[in-house]
Each structure stands twice: as C-alpha cells, then as structure tokens.
Amino acid sequence: MSSDEKGGDKPAFCRSFRCELEEVKRLLPANSKFPLDKKVIKAVVASAMRTEWSSLSTAKAKAIKPLGDCARYISVDPKPIVCIRARLRLSVALTPQRRHVYRLADSPRCGCGWPVGDTNHVVMLCPKFASARSVCSNLLLSCAVPVKLTLDLVLGNPPQVDDQWWSGQRALLRDLHDQCLNITGDLLLFIDRTIHL
To answer: What is the pLDDT of residue 12?
Structure first.
C-alpha cells in the first residue's frame, strides 16, 4: 500500500475539493455572506497570493521581487530597458564579473581597473559612467520630490520617500516612481550601449 493510500502526505495539487474549500473559508472575513462580493473575492485572492509568496519563495526570488505584486518597471519601461533592468535584477546581466563566470572573459576585473566589475560597481561606481550617472542623479534631485540615486532605484524599486508625507497620495507616488524609472532607464541604456549588458 502506498503512502497516498494510507492517508500519508499528498502533493498540494491532489487535495480534495472539500480541503480546498475549507482553506478558502479560513481566508474569508468572519462576517462574509454568500454569494461573495467581487471585491471580497479579489481581496481574498490577493491576500492568499501574498501570503503564499512570502512563505514559499526563495531568498533570491524575494530579492528580485520583494512584494507579491507585479514590478512597476515591467509596465512602464520600453522593451530594451525592461530587459536590461530584468537581467540586472536577476544577476545575469553581462557585467565584467558575470562575463568571467560565463567564461567569456579571463577576469572579473572591470575595464576601469576595479578588481570585481559586479552590478553595484558598474551602475553606481564605475568612472566610465560617471558623467551619465551625474546627469541621472541631478535629474532625480530635480523631481517634485528630490530622490537620491541608489542601486535599488536603478533596479526598478520605488523611491524611498517620507511615508508620512505620502500617506493617501498613492497616485502621486506612482507618478514619481514612473519618473524615476524613465530617468534611470536612460542611465541603463547608456551603460548598455557601452558594455552590452
């Protein structure tokens, strides 16, 4: 007799409808009445997805996608930039260090002489891109709310701003994030034209 026949561990996708229904019921607000409102269903599904994402995703996956929601850059960036940003977030962009890992280069050394040309060095420190980085930084500082250039920002994460000021201003924060994506996207394109990430 197999472990499944004995009632042992079964894969999650083999559970009975009754088990699935019980799990869904646990996620519903206590005062829910059937049939469920579309907003309640949407909220329950979103909550379940976030919970599952945070409990089952790997550390690398969480670094790429800290929240369960779709990353904003995917819907804002034009195709060349969205690809570059995604490769950087996945740590597969062809930085000097990654070229060395892929045996496309003899050394992880950057062309500027820095010993390890990783993502942080290429985007934030390499002197070859100092002028483009300076332009990017100045444009970010001239936004309606000044934003500091960081690697997280270049990788497409939302700008770090005072939460108290932005409470209830979700649309304005989204617009600021979009502006930051456009500005940092130009920096990424400049870097890509030079070293082909």
So the answer is: 58
134 in Cβ contact with 128 (< 8 Å): no
SS3 15: coil
Contact 182, 139 (CB under 8 A): no
What's residue 65's pLDDT? 66
Cα dist from 19 to 25, 26, 105, 139, 156, whole Å: 10, 11, 54, 54, 39
Evaluate whether 146 touches 140 at the Cβ level (below 8 Å): yes
Q: Long-range contact list for 71-80, CB < 8 A, 24+ apart?
A: 71/156, 72/156, 72/158, 72/174, 72/177, 72/178, 72/181, 73/156, 73/181, 76/178, 76/181, 76/182, 77/156, 77/181, 77/185, 78/185, 80/189, 80/192
DSSP strands (E only) in the chain: none
Give the Cα separation of 152 and 94 in Å (integer). 18
pLDDT digits (tens, 9 = 90+) for 87-124: 998 888 999 999 999 999 999 999 888 899 999 999 99
Amino acid occupying residue 142:
S
List pLDDT tens digits, range 60-86. 776 666 666 678 888 888 889 999 999
